[in-house]
Design a protein that fits this description.
Length: 232
Amino acid sequence: MIPSSPRLDSLLTGIARPFTRPGSHSAIDKQPRQGALQVTALGIAGDEQGDLRVHGGVEKAIHHYPREHYAAWAAELGEHPLLAQPGAFGENFSSTGWTEADVCLGDRIRVGTALLEISQGRMPCWKLNERFDVAQMALRVQQSGRTGWYYRVVEEGEVQAGDSLQLVERPHGLWSVARLSAVLFDKCLEPELLQECLALPLVPNWRRTLEKRLAQRQVEDWSSRLQGRSDT
């Protein structure tokens, strides 16, 4: 089923600043921007990433997080100050109407004059724990499936808050972001399902992870990503 076309309620960018641990930097504190902004292959003009080893780049040019998830988090966490406005999860796009169950890997979406393609779901990291001051927040985001997703930029252009998000192509309609992420995060070891996933146009790190899982018949250790290390 083709989802309706929501509007981009908020367009957000952030500047990389020192984070909570010595030597760490982050641009997770995204703030709303007004007016049209240029979108290039590396993302939105004025947006930065604190650690280019694991954030940003062409496969993670833009992060989209559904606004409706905020109510679920407020029910779990209480009236957390970060949940008062978009940007709590470091997202660039905030909208209501699409969740991970409504969009699929490879979906091409026209926003303003830019054409974007969903490249992967988000793999949350330890910085969410410290941003929210909630133990195991990254793990909770992962287990909930409320991760959001990333876009690569197919055609550069301009976007602004209020633009509609229009699905123009869906090559992998059986593979919602929610379904694909569940294979990864639910620690699936079923060979046929892993082979089916590997037939999809996965980003390199997802492909390596699932190939290794298929070959070794064991699930990878996520503790470094979810909990961090003192030297991260």
